[in-house]
Amino acid sequence: MYACLVERETTWEHIVALETVLLKYGFPLAYYVDNHSIFRFVQGRDSYWRNHYKLTDEANPQWKQVLDDCRVKVTYALSPQAKGKIERPYRWIQDRLVRTCYRENVRDIKKGQLILNNLVQKYNYRIVHSTTGEIPYIRFQRATREKRTLFKEFTISPPFKSTKDIFCLRVERMVNPYRKISINNLELKVPGAPLHERIQLRIVPDRKSGVSEVRFWHEDEFLGMQKVKNSDLNLVQF
Q: What is the end-to-end Cα distance of the chain in Å, rounded?
């Protein structure tokens, strides 16, 4: 449903993947993932950047917060073998991607993405699956027609105003007496924000323009938005 080559795996890249899949196919019942630190905080393994008294799953990663807003469950596999149905097609595509790139002397990520797109197209629309005996796309379409799929239509539920309020990075800040908040030494004025209260910043970065949209929320109330340079927000931490 989504396959993209990136130079660096980040939380934001995974949120973009969520947005692409959910807007196209709707809400799934659950996501089945491994224990990567982007998906799950595990005490001990991740404690070097978290307070040591946080136990496993007490810290809620950005990626999971998006799914919480979508009311989609997350199930964690304890080993690669536990999610063999996911690993098998991944291995099929990865093996052919590596061999094709080597054979055609592809060293550029954009050209590699074109090869990956062709492989995904072939896997989804042309190859008969060895387990189901059907082409994946045809099987999925029939399940949708017969209402045997657990996908639900994507909708923006209150209090959210836009998909930007869901598929975003989140951080909380305290409002000072001048109705300003500070993030990475950058002060932003938030008109109408309650003094000395914590508000949530929902940040939607745009890599092409180099500008992020920062949307301010307080207890389900939208307070407004501002646009800020990505460099000023220091999005590397995400």
A: 24
